[in-house]
Amino acid sequence: MSSIWFLEGIRKGRKTEKFPKASPKEPPLWPSRLEGKGEVDCPTNAIDNNAWDSGKCVFCRRCEQSYKPSLDQDIFTVKDTNQLFRKSFYLYKLDSGSCGACNVELGTIFDPQYDANRLNIFTTNTPRHADAIVVMGVMTDGMKEALQKAYEAMPDPKLIIALGTCAISGGVIGKSALPRDQYNVEISGCPPSPYTILKAISRARGD
Amino acid sequence: MKWYKFGKPSGRLIGQVDEFIVHSDSILEVEDSTAVKRVNYHKVPGEFVFAYGPSTGGLMESVGFDLFTPGELINHVDVDPNFKKRTLQVKGKSVQDALLVVERINGFHSVSNSIAFASAVEDALGIEISDEIRHTRILMMELERIRSHLEVVKRVCEPAGFGVPSNQIGYLREEVSRIISRATGHRFFFSSNGVGTVHFNANGIVPALDKIVNEFDHIFRGLLQSKIFLNRLQNNGRAHHPNLLGPAARASGLSVDARMDSGTISYKDIDFNPVLQEEADSFARFMVRSREIFQSAEIIRSLENVGDFKSADISVSGSGEGAARVESPQGDLFYYVNLEDGVVEDLKMVSPSYMNILAFEDSIVGNIFTDFHFNWESFGIWVSEIGVEIR
Q1: Is residue A138 within 8 angstroms of chain B, CB to CB?
Q2: pLDDT, position B52
Q3: Chain A: nearest CA to B349, how far in angstroms?
Q4: Nearest residue of A to residue B165, measured between CA atoms
Q5: Cα-flanking dihedrals φ and ψ of residue A95, to 5°?
Q6: Model confidence pLDDT, tens digit, residues B222-270
Q7: What's the confidence (pLDDT) of residue B95?
């Protein structure tokens, strides 16, 4: 029976898209980079003094009259990287208090359309084998210790990646998982699209 | 309240939140906030507790399991969904601000949550929705159901090491996400549903969905011929529990579905009968979800009058109490709101995941460790909607 599945896999052919070398095939409108100007009534103060902070934005569309989505998926910040991660970059995912959407989108980058494995990006079931910890969600009392222990268990060098607005700034839900200056990588979006996640993580490993 | 009344229990038990015990037709106020009790288990000699979670790569969300075992057999499990318990501030907010939070209680089932909340507000303020809005909401919920069921079937394949079907279903799930993105501008429906309004473009959905469902049909038939896979599911985690909800209930022969007995989003003009299985095990839950993918696609095909639909936003003001119940992909989802001049004074939500966790705890007894993941994933439980406190 296993041979049937092997043949089924071959029969489907290649489904993986060219991103990030090529443009995203189906970028979502929300979230994407917002372009515009003016003061608006923003529920998370993501727009303040005519400046837009993608790490605070939940892309709720209330500013749509003044700020338009551009489809640009490059809404991330990579503050630190390490060439050691180029050949293999193992991620440990940690849900500190998410709604589940970030968890699904992180898993999506391993689906055939994106196939993060081809970029030497993998997940690991233990922080001891991880190069980076991906934090999703706001900080909750019950997950503080787990986050701390997981980070301490990781070998050096290591990165902390904030995935989604809750982890970066708390969004409309609560307090961010960690202070922003502790993150090496911030991936914006509520939740971030797989395009944004894949490109940001690829950059974090030194691409 | 048009669909609910306070008073003695009437209809099926949906669950409890704070001092509300919610049935399908009534809300009973009690003093004991833990009237729906869990089993108290005491370790017997020779057993030890194997702690699994809350954070490990094998779990989608943070959740803790204490497995009571003499070595391989599981005699009891305690599930703790409160490691990632979030405290959400909703009371005192406007309905529009509260909706932003409600959508993020369970992001993967955001449409079910936002429609149940919006319907409760509409009930409180006496807002009638048109058939066009009702049909659009049905379409959105059925689309969410297809994606959610694909995710569960994918996750049931993973512990069997079935990389090919797992990835192929993952591909289909992503294609559904892209349909949702084209229809609403957001891959999780965020900000596409509101009180008395909905924004959705259904053009082109049916042909795209037909392609996905045809491909899933091929994979599904292949899985039904995979003896190793079926052996892992059959007789694994039998759950005969009178208070089961959603696909887990229908997998045990219970004809339980809010689409049949809730007035909130009526399916009265849609040809629909619940998908039932009798086996009550992981296999039956896998079967019900798989067959419901075809059924949901059929419902969407029948909604021919839904096109590019963007109804005008309406101003929300006034006071009142309202309640609503919809069939989320996981089962009955209940919302109660109390509004004062358009501001949320009280909000209560009962998630189907709570009753299903109790059933999961019962079902795992007598199974072994290697059965665990198949059984857990087959229930499709979302911890984010249980580990939550609304203030």
Answers
A1: yes
A2: 95
A3: 15
A4: A5
A5: -95, 100
A6: 999 999 899 999 999 999 888 899 999 999 999 999 999 999 999 989 9
A7: 95
Instruction: Tell me what pLDDT residue B37 has.
Output: 62
As a whole number, mean pLDDT of residues B279-289 equals 97
Place of tokens 């997950």: A143
Indicate the residue type of B382. W
Band of residue B33 on the pLDDT scale cut at 50, 70, 90: low
What is the percentage of chain B residues whose pLDDT exceeds 90? 85
Indicate if the pLDDT at residue A64 is higher than 60. Answer: yes
Chain B contact for A94 (CB, 8 A cutoff): yes
With respect to CATH, is domain B5-390 assigned 1.10.645.10?
Answer: yes
A154 touches chain B (CB under 8 A): no
Q: Which residue of B has its CA nearest to A93?
A: B57
To the nearest whole Å, the CA of A67 is away from the closest chain B CA by: 15
A153: distance to nearest CA of chain B, Å? 13
* Reported confidence tier of residue B57, pLDDT bands at 50, 70, 90: confident
Tally A–B CB contacts below 8 A: 167
ipTM: 0.96
As assigned by CATH, the class of the A76-204 domain is alpha beta
**Contact check, Cβ <8 Å, A108/B174:** yes
CB B61 to CB A6 under 8 A? no
Among B58, B107, B181, whose Cβ lies nearest the Cβ of A100? B107
Query: Could you say which of A1, A172, A193 has the minimum Cβ distance to residue B227?
Result: A1
Interface test with B, best of A94, A95, A108, A133 (most B CBs within 10 A): A95
Q: A98 or B228: which carries more pLDDT confidence?
A: A98
The mean pLDDT value for B100-107 works out to 97
